[in-house]
Amino acid sequence: MLLRNAISAVLAIAVCAALPLASASAASHELTSADFASNVASGTTFVKFYSPQCGHCIRLAPTWEQMAEELQGLETSKDFKFAEVNCLMEGDICDDNNVRGYPSLQLFHSGKSLESYDGPRDLKDLKGYATKRAEEYSPSRRAQEAVKQNSARSPQPNVNPEGKVAVLDAMTYTAALQGGGGGAPWLIEYYAPWCGHCKALAPIYEELAKELKGLVNVGKVDCPANEVICRSQGVRGYPTIKLHQHGKAAEFTDRRSLESMKNFALGATAPSVTRIELGDLEGLIAGVEVSFIYLYDAARDVAASEMMDKQSQIFYQQASFYSSADPVVARRLAVTETAGPKLLVLKDGRQFEYQGSLTKRYEVESWIEQVKDPLVPLVTGKNSAKTLHAPGITILGLFDLSKPATLPARKALIETAYKYKKWAAGGNAGSHKIRFAVMDANKWSNYISNALRTEMLNLPVIMAVNSIEEVYYAKAADGRRVELTEEALWQYIQDLESGSLEEESMLNYAQKVFRSISGHVSGVFSTVAAHPYIALIVVISSVYLLVKKAIAYVNEDVRPAGTVKAD
């Protein structure tokens, strides 16, 4: 076997050297197993999977190179890149991405393979496809559209009229939001005067107010001086920036640059309901993200359409909203063509329909709030506290989300979560409070390797984690890794409930020793705090005994030589 592999490798190198090149140019990056996942993890990447032995690949190479060079500017303007993978040398990457023939052209967005390109492979058609997809998946597309829409309208004289940051306090805060809640929105920074990050942000925030003149009100609240206001907004760190409109608040969580804050403010104040066709729908159904779909009659459902526009603003960057007036799309979703618009949500491979009137704002808003989060969420910095560090056990899927091969394991985890939810609702669950989550191994590699003792090469893995007790359960009852199937996952949960699994500590030896010492020291201080008078008596008595011993020692030491102690 070893000899055969060595011969294959030598032949592959010889073939690559002998055949005309079909490899990457400076504009189309050559990717390997070492950098493929990291390169396609962000933005959009058009990837050519090829073999240097393939005649079609050799003929396509100059056309691909010319396209990549002519569209090289898309990487800067649209975060759209071109890349290539030599399947003769990087067979594992091609297998993971279901490459069955050469050349295979696939579009990746945020680490996921979205679609294969099967159109003509001449320069004009390839460039047209790449340009169109670059625009569709541009990270700032919606924000840019919002900027355009807001810039086109005339500035309102009563909205941020001077382009300055308004200082809000207990006397002006409520009145400002009530005035802007039904009309112009407010972007508000909750800060502390002593906060270094707030000081650094101050000049940028002042410039932002100028940029949003006549479009969005900009204000700030001194939290130490207005604790009640900041407590009501759940402010836990400084600075916290929120956009208030329609009586709700959306928190800004991106990098605090002038451009990103401006895009957020203008993006949230414009409707972000994307129209879809039947071809777009298939991707939403097959995916694992949460998508709201609004089906309507364009001529009849005007009030409901306005309501959905408003909901897309309220839940900006929290949920994705799509719409269609095409009856073919409705039939694909098995929605009967009855009177009135419909609102559906696709999540976790399931479809749920809103039951009620789409003109009743608070009922619609309440339903969206309840269903907008998946049963098996992706762990982020924002939700890690409730998914990882809350009481109970998290069944955690550790996945490299850039690999399509991970999708079946993720779906198996989702199906198991729904089965457990139904089973627990029947009163069958044990004492453990169990929840489910998915962790992107590329973003949480330190936690996975240090706390859960798992190497990236061993992924995908599913294990139970109890962060409060600092233990995890890495193996099934038979001592092996948990298989990534619904049956094996369900048995793993049953064994967990019955206490049949062996726990492992998240702490190493040094951490355990430090924790033990800290515990003893903390115990002493707790005792002193609980019984101060007894502690004072003990301290005085100890000091008295030490002083008495010291005096006796001194007296013994200074007695003249030859002196005999009396009986």
TrEMBL record:
Residue spans of biased composition, Polar residues class: 147-159
Compositional bias ranges of the Basic and acidic residues kind: 132-145
Transmembrane annotation, as ranges: 524-547
Membrane topology: Single-pass membrane protein
Domain spans labelled Thioredoxin: 13-135, 145-340
Source species, domain of life: Eukaryota
Region span, Disordered: 132-161
GO CC annotations, alphabetized: endoplasmic reticulum membrane
Location of the protein in the cell: Endoplasmic reticulum membrane
InterPro entries cross-referenced by the UniProt entry: PDI_TMX3, Thioredoxin-like_sf, Thioredoxin_CS, Thioredoxin_domain
Keyword terms: Membrane, Signal, Transmembrane, Transmembrane helix
SUPFAM superfamilies for this protein: Thioredoxin-like (SSF52833)
Position of the signal peptide: 1-26
Chief place of localization: endoplasmic reticulum
Biological role stated in the UniProt entry: Probable disulfide isomerase, which participates in the folding of proteins containing disulfide bonds. May act as a dithiol oxidase. Acts as a regulator of endoplasmic reticulum-mitochondria contact sites via its ability to regulate redox signals.
Protein name, entry field: Thioredoxin domain-containing protein
